Amino acid sequence: MKRLYSTDAGFEQQFTRMVNDRRESDESVAQDVQEILREVRRDGDNTLRNLTMRFDKHALTDDPSSWRIGKDQCAAAYNDLASEAKTALNLAADRIRAYHEGQLPQDRDYRDDANVRLGARWSPVEAAGLYVPGGRAAYPSSLLMNAIPAKVAGVDRLVVATPTPKGEINALVLAAAHLCEIDEIWRIGGAQAIAALAYGTDSIDPVDVITGPGNAWVAEAKRQLYGVVGIDMVAGPSEILVISDNQSDPDWVAADLLSQAEHDPTSQSILITDDAEFAEMVEDAVDVLCAQLETRGVARKSWDDYGALVVVEDLVREAPALANRLAAEHVELMVADPDTMFADIRHAGSVFLGRHTPEAVGDYVAGPNHVLPTGRRARFASGLSVLDFMKRTSFIEMDEAGLREIGPAAATLAEIEGLPAHAASVKVRLK
Amino acid sequence: MKRLYSTDAGFEQQFTRMVNDRRESDESVAQDVQEILREVRRDGDNTLRNLTMRFDKHALTDDPSSWRIGKDQCAAAYNDLASEAKTALNLAADRIRAYHEGQLPQDRDYRDDANVRLGARWSPVEAAGLYVPGGRAAYPSSLLMNAIPAKVAGVDRLVVATPTPKGEINALVLAAAHLCEIDEIWRIGGAQAIAALAYGTDSIDPVDVITGPGNAWVAEAKRQLYGVVGIDMVAGPSEILVISDNQSDPDWVAADLLSQAEHDPTSQSILITDDAEFAEMVEDAVDVLCAQLETRGVARKSWDDYGALVVVEDLVREAPALANRLAAEHVELMVADPDTMFADIRHAGSVFLGRHTPEAVGDYVAGPNHVLPTGRRARFASGLSVLDFMKRTSFIEMDEAGLREIGPAAATLAEIEGLPAHAASVKVRLK
Fold this sequence. Notes:
The structure is a homodimer.
Chain A: E1 2-5, H1 11-20, H2 30-56, H3 64-67, H4 71-79, H5 83-101, E2 108-111, E3 117-124, E4 127-131, H6 140-153, E5 157-161, H7 171-179, E6 184-186, H8 190-199, E7 209-211, H9 216-225, E8 230-231, E9 239-244, H10 250-261, E10 268-273, H11 276-292, H12 296-306, E11 308-311, H13 315-326, E12 330-334, H14 338-343, E13 350-353, H15 359-364, E14 390-397, H16 400-416, H17 420-430
Parallel strand pairs in A: 1-11, 4-5, 4-7, 5-6, 7-8, 9-10, 9-12, 10-11, 12-13
Antiparallel strand pairs in A: 2-3, 3-14
Helix pairs in contact in A: 2-8, 2-9, 4-7, 5-6, 6-7, 8-9, 10-11, 10-12, 16-17
């Protein structure tokens, strides 16, 4: 864990190092992935059989249930949920749906002064593939956050790919799939699953967009297939930046910092405050709470390796500028006047205003998406939304009068660009 | 040039082959590009000097004007424009600006039934890099179409990178840069220019988003840097699909088909009609017009290699389904009732309604962006827009009552996902 004081001579250098530290695996998986994509493209189902046996110890056989998990199985998993879990999952789904319905874009269709009709029409993609990792990161909330925007967008076909190592299936994920009305669940994982969704195989029809978290191979496969399909942003380890004055309860701040730290050993939790004593109280609270957590192994390592306490002199003046440089995935503003500070924050995935808004409510039930840009990408990227599952078709309509008014300018520009057929296509109509 | 008749036995197979034919270079440039990115990242300006000498025969020296083109030079190029060109360029810029201003997204900020405040705030990226190719594809219209959406978005810093082979500068591009108020123009090109914009060098500050057309090296560099910066969609050769009944003038259709064919030998122009005789008349008209074009070399090769005449029986019933499978960049509907047909077209970059709307007006002056998805990517991608230069920050604010209402569900879900610190961050506030 690092301690940075803005009054220290080395502060600028230390902070810059923290901003530039990407914490992302430099593993050279690109070559492996390239080979897997090539194999799946060439040999489809057969490659899926081989790689699923090799990586997941799961046999894809002539029995269809070895390939796909049926809707009845998902319904059963949902019905088996404890009532508290069922209620919570439904509350989450309802609130996520309500928030995302407000993202549906408006079509445009108007005539301008030259009587030229212009517009844009949004439509959903036909099919979306949602990757759901096996193991530690198989979260039902993640399926909700990926599937509901697709559903709200109006996608016709929702396909999940998820590995079932040694045949093991995560019942919570199936329950969430039931709630989200997923059309197909394929028992495949890794780069080979992404390739199968993008290219299609004899068994699996291709999709148009692939979203969802995954390990380095999954992320690299998505990156390499960007352009063959649409993908969500490349995702790195989770981050939280808490900006707090000394009026917050240190236990609350500590819990919020640890809620990111427990995700992954490479997650990052940072506190910016204007009171060095408060920072120490938070540090103590982190130690106390961390020791009680079942996830303490991961949380401790993340906090020790990447955690930071940054003490500044003037929170209102200094913190927003530092926050913009970090461009963190999650930013909590635990200060007296969060609105004023929010006005100065330009780069952040999601902002949590005030002392009673722990980041975890955003992970599950608040409504906005929890798939957010990491690794300083909030400088240019947004959280997952309904728009990631839609596309826009612009359109133009003109009559002879309109063409006569603006067409000659097009012909002039075509000619100076050396494109005579472009010019001819206007002129031939105005003869 | 291919002739396909929907009544032929082999039609389905032939059409599928056309849909799957990507026409994109399989050149293995990935390795070269990877090496260039690594070198620029490590050795910045020095690598730019070496590669610019090697590829462009242009020396980047101690003289700043060898690196950058000044604003005075752009203003002079603009003032030197012939008055017709100046008027046309201004008309184009004004109309593009007006259309894109309508794309500015609405922020959201509301309280829901649980008195939870939710919203999303859009903000522009700080800096955008626009690539402008040298040589044949150095089009001022392309600079307008990339720069104006960025400007409308509110981007602070607009940077152009363009190669100046043997020192040669394209005056039209400079004039357009003046009109778009570009802040910096760097005389660099290729993958090294994209790397310099993404990583920054001692001379060049990094940008957040890179857009603009380029050759295979430029496109691959953007693809590899996706995630370090935001990029526009991977672009392939241009395409047009004209759907026309036999009431259109064959000369008009021929000019439109050739206006894409003249772009590049790998461009594709397709006519779908319901009259075989009309198709032949168009074919003849293509031959006549093509012979007159200065661009006939390129246009002829594109038409011969990739052009297609598709004759169907029932245009209204069959054409939209075929169009959706092609998901073409440009679709012209030269039919009696274009609106009805448009309602059936789901996948297209931009649609041109009626007989008096040649695609070329969309390239220059209509207003909508001419940077559009190619290579069947209209299935999932949209044309360039103001949104490509902005990002969304979601936000959440709740008080104790709101947290008491929805917080426990978050804690429940966190617990079943095995994330106790998430649960603790809610519970500690409700003690």
